[in-house]
Design goal:
By secondary structure, the chain is mostly helical. It has one domain (7-258). The chain has eleven helices and four strands. The strands form two sheets. The chain has a two-stranded antiparallel ribbon. Helix 4 packs antiparallel against helix 5 and helix 7 (161-188) packs antiparallel against helix 8. It is flat, with a radius of gyration of 29 Å. The chain starts with a helix and ends in a 13-residue tail after the last helix. Residues 1-5 have low confidence and may be disordered.
Length: 341
């Protein structure tokens, strides 16, 4: 948990990744032909990345584009805050005709509305400097478009920190109720969770414990739909932000891992790339000798990409694991809890 709390920004991670690539290539560039191809792919990829970054930097630094984008972002932030206020007012009433616990939904609504107020104050503080921040941050285009995308991810994470806070609060409350209901359900069946052996064992409870457990189970069960509704709403908002972040990450990954030198050679001089060979026969009319001709075959573009693309570490979390975490109230990215009780 602590390691995720102090994770560096995406921009720093991208800078470290690119630095490690250049260090690795510089160390092994004279070993074999494969490393020479990796060096060419990395250098051409860096040139292309820098050209795209400079083009984006020119667009942002010309004709007040940075300030225009800042105004759009701030207007969207204000609109999002107003939308969240309307959403909370809707949840504090009778959403979709559902009968919720009025005291709990009023408390949660006021709690989240106060955080929206803090968010609007935060927007008012950064409003005068956001345009200048985008203007000077566009200078990272010298390093490449991937660094600008990484910086955009950091800005997006900062602009949507209130949605993340809402999601964390709702998920923790929902998870606490699910955990308590599971413990009380085991109490009714004469079971308990053995922490030392990590299993469910039999247990004996007296009348007072059963009575208190019944009261707590009833209260938690009746207020669960209220907290579950807040959890579902803010989880959907969090997933929407993660989808946008995932698209930006995917764009950076494509720019980083595509072997651009090999792709250019395939486009303009495909004959220099050979992935196989085949033989043809030719019989001379003047003699009975059989002549064999060997011809090389050029690879397809998908073959070039698959053979030259650097292996990327896939996510260890499957869709089933993520769905299970969502149902149980575990926090998804970046705080996925691996230990399930």
């Amino acid at each position: 948990m602590l390691g995720n709390l102090i994770d560096p920004p995406t921009f720093v991670t991208q800078l470290r990744l690119r630095s490690n690539k250049f260090t690795s290539v510089r160390t092994n560039r004279y070993e074999n032909t494969v490393n020479s191809k990796e060096t060419s792919n990395l250098c051409v990829g860096q040139v292309l990345d820098t050209m795209l970054g400079l083009a984006c930097m020119w667009i942002l630094m010309s004709n007040g584009t940075a300030q225009w984008l800042a105004n759009i972002g701030l207007a969207y932030g204000d609109k999002t805050a107003e939308g969240l206020k309307e959403l909370l007012d809707w949840l504090m009433g009778a959403p979709a005709g559902l009968k919720l616990n009025s005291q709990l939904t009023h408390f949660l609504g006021k709690f989240f509305q106060y955080h929206i107020y803090l968010w609007t104050v935060y927007l008012s503080i950064i409003r005068p400097v956001l345009g200048s921040l985008l203007f000077y941050s566009s200078l990272s285009g010298v390093l490449g478009l991937t660094f600008q995308l990484a910086l955009l991810q950091d800005i997006l994470a900062t602009m949507t920190v209130h949605i993340y806070c809402f999601y964390v609060y709702a998920a923790r409350l929902y998870r606490l109720q699910i955990y308590a209901l599971g413990s009380l359900w085991r109490l009714f069946r004469g079971k308990k969770w053995n922490v030392l052996r990590q299993r469910v064992d039999s247990a004996v409870y007296d009348v007072d414990q059963l009575f208190v457990g019944t009261l707590l189970f009833t209260v938690l069960l009746f207020i669960l739909p209220t907290s579950a509704l807040y959890y579902v709403v803010f989880t959907l908002l969090r997933i929407l932000v993660l989808v946008i972040q995932g698209l930006l990450t995917r764009m950076r990954s494509i720019l980083d891992t595509t072997p651009w030198w090999s792709v250019l050679r395939w486009l303009f001089n495909r004959q220099c790339l050979v992935d196989g060979a085949y033989l043809t026969t030719h019989t001379s009319s003047k003699s009975n000798n059989l002549v064999l001709y060997m011809h090389g075959t050029s690879p397809s573009l998908s073959t070039v990409l698959s053979s030259c693309r650097e292996p990327t570490s896939g996510s260890p979390y499957t869709w089933a694991t993520i769905l299970k975490n969502l149902i149980h109230g575990h926090l998804i990215y970046p705080w996925i809890e691996m230990k399930q009780s």
